[in-house]
């Protein structure tokens, strides 16, 4: 719609978290952080290597303290079906928590997810692009790494919300189950939207643009063409079929939506059947732990 103003949009969850908090909570311009410096640590020698990491002796150059540094290896190609379900569930826990605190991460990608596979621990790191969410506020679209940018960023829609992180998580899930890294491999931001449209189709894209009164950059008109939506099953091959299940494809379909309002929230995604095996195992572990404590108290 030429000349029209983009339609307003608000997050479906945790909409007013920051509205209800004191300004000091979200006004980071007034906060002075106490940064540590990784440059203070100098590697001395390699101590060994394991399946998932390399270990080095290092020294803190500020006080000559000896430390041990573990550098984790890339894990993508080594994860089992259950591993993917488990770590995606753990990542959703992290996202739901930060969203409940009124914070959008805005740079969810594999390099910002650290996994200690031996301890089954996951950490979402690098909060340099994170931002506090306020309803109907316009945000900078120059965030997130290209391959994980949501369509809203690529069409310059500034009134986005937590659902941006859910698109990025969906891209990670697609990469892991299809063994295709990255899943949407654009050469630049324009080509990135084209790659998305070649999977999700152009009819749905234009429907999204119409709903939110978004005027598409004229450079896209020749680039996009007419694309038909692909079925997720088309990406199944012999080398990845052991990682793909009907529930995985259903979850993926509910995350990778043009319309940010239609994507699952982190809390909703955690309730998806794809994660039932993880939820069941964690429930059993908690039950066993409770029984062990009860037995200990009884003696």
How does this model look, in words?
This protein has 299 residues and is an alpha+beta fold. It has helices at 23-26, 81-100, 151-154, 163-178, 189-200, 202-211, 219-224, 246-255, 266-270, 276-298, and strands spanning 41-49, 53-60, 65-72, 103-104, 113-116, 121-124, 131-132. A 3-stranded antiparallel β-sheet has the order 1-2-3, with no helix packed on it. A hairpin with a 4-residue loop joins strand 2 (53-60) and strand 3. Helix 2 (81-100) packs antiparallel against helix 4 (163-178) and helix 4 runs antiparallel to helix 8 (246-255). It is globular and about 65 Å long. Belongs to the protein kinase superfamily. Its EC number is 2.7.11.1. InterPro entries: CK2_alpha, Kinase-like_dom_sf, Prot_kinase_dom, Protein_kinase_ATP_BS, Ser/Thr_kinase_AS.
Helix content: 25-40%
Strands of the largest sheet, in order across it? 1-2-3
Query: Order of helices and strands, N to C?
Result: HEEEHEEEEHHHHHHHH
The general outline is globular
